[in-house]
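Sample entry (285 residues):
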Amino acid sequence: MDGIFIIDKPAGMTSHDVVNAIRARLLVAKAGHLGTLDPMATGVLPVSVGKATRFGRFIPNSPKEYIGEIRFGFSTNTYDREGTPTSEEHLLLNSAKDVEGVIRSLTGKLSQIPPPFSAKKIGGVPSYKLARKNRPVQIAPIQVEVYEFEMLRFEPPVITVRVVCSPGTYVRSLAHDLGRTLGSGAHLTALRRTRSGDFRLEHAVPLQRVSASDLIPMSRLLESWPRIEVSGAEEMRVMHGNQIPGDADAEFARIFNKKGEFIAVAAVENGWVRPRLVLTSNTSD
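Predicted structure, serialized as C-alpha cells:
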C-alpha cells in the first residue's frame, strides 16, 4: 500500500494520533502526515503511507486555506480557546470596518511570532514543553505570507474569517495579533483547514470511514509534472541513481518503467534527467 490518504481530521486528535490510527486500521507499517494540524483544528490532513512517505517533500503543500472563528474580549496563553485567559474581559467596541482595516494590515509578507504553546524549538526543546513548566518562552519571529485574509461574518464578539497562507503560518497568531491591535484581546475558537496544496476538503475522507479504496496511488501523485517512461539500459541507470539524457518543460519529472511503475523522482537540468529519489521495487517499507 503506497500512496496518500486525504483525511478529514476530527477535533481532539493530534496529527500523530491520526497517523497511528491509519497504521492500526489499515495495517501499514510506515506512515506520516504532510503538515501538522493542532488538536483543536479539523479538516484536510494528507497522510502518506508506504513508499509515498519517502517523497513527501516533493508534494506541494502550499497554499494552506482555512475557515476559522475568532472571539474578541480576551487573549489566552495558547492563542486559542483551549488556553488560560491572559487578559481581563473587554468588549469589542470597534466596527466591522475597523476590524477589516486591521485584517488588511495582517495580509502580505509578515514577520510572525509563533504561539508559546507550539512545536517551535528553543534550544532543541519544543516551546510548549517550556511553556507548560512556566519557563520563559522567547521564540524568534518567522517569515510567513498571508495571501488572503478576509472577514466572512461579523457577529460580535465572534467573527468568522477565511485565511489563505504559506506553510508555517499560525492562524492562532493572526487571531492574537488582531485582538492586540484592536485593544480588546482575541483568541481562536475554531479552525478548519479546507485546502493543503492540491488537496481540498472535497477530496477528504472522515477518519472513521477511511478504507484502502480511498488511497491515492503514487501513479496519481505529482500529475502536473512531466512523465518520462524508460526501459532497458535507461531503466537500470535510473534504478542506480544515474542520470539519463532527456528534457522537459519543467524543473522536475516523474519516471515510470514500461510496467507503469513509478520508479523515481528526477530533476531536469540542461538536457539531463537526474534522479533525486529512486523508488526501487525492492525498497522495504
